[in-house]
């Protein structure tokens, strides 16, 4: 009987191995090279959603304005390279610093709120960021957006002798970044800080009683999730070569929250599944033409009726229950 490696006993390792295998094998199912682009969009959305899993799933805080941080990262790359001649890598780091700093600055007062008050406050923050990006036209291009630099992947690949197309290289790069983000989120969950976040998710009163600085823990989770969104936004700008205020808009925020809920709010793997479903389904439902959005809504509604905790927790629960029934004499 083949022995399972001891390191696979760690749930984090199993999740990362599963993600890596799926990322590596998915291209075998691609009917055309276009789906490398779809895969890249899935991974960048999943990276943003992984940050929201930390905020919502771990810490129990709701944000309806997280697309604002995504927009900060995207525009940091576009403005930094176009107006100041900064290197793209530096712009990614700058955007992450700006988003994280803003989240820390506004997080403490905003995160004192609870329930729908918190949702409205974060919604207002997202709208404010989108309005700034729209109105500062001399820097951001206004409502029409602006171009962003694309990485010279073709030249780099040719110089390095790597037999990949730019679309394949972006797929691999975004997949590696997602794996790194998932590893950090899973490691955070099992750390002392992650246990503190889960404690305040269950009960803020109990968390205070055992000595957790609730305001600091919430602010840290908010900042970390903002950095995830910013990095994803920066990579999206470099991938698309264009940015516009819709990246920071309300509808994008709603899409991100829907991905979290659809996949399973407390699960990193669930976040990836939710991002995959909500990114890929619209691509496959185009055959329904004008009924495309109707079909998407129906499918999502049915999924949430039968998998109320999200796709991954729901399927895991169903599998566990089935195995339990089989084990009974």
UniProtKB/TrEMBL annotation:
One of its GO terms (cellular component) is plasma membrane. The chain crosses the membrane at residues 41-60, 92-110, 117-134, 169-188, 221-239, 259-281, 293-322. It comes from the Bacteria. GO terms for molecular function: branched-chain amino acid transmembrane transporter activity. Its main location: membrane. It holds the Pfam family BPD_transp_2. Keywords: Cell membrane, Membrane, Transmembrane, Transmembrane helix. InterPro entries: ABC_transp_permease, LivM-like. It is a multi-pass membrane protein. It is found in: Cell membrane. The keyword Transmembrane applies. This is ABC transporter permease. It comes from Pararhodospirillum oryzae. The lineage of its organism: Bacteria, Pseudomonadati, Pseudomonadota, Alphaproteobacteria, Rhodospirillales.
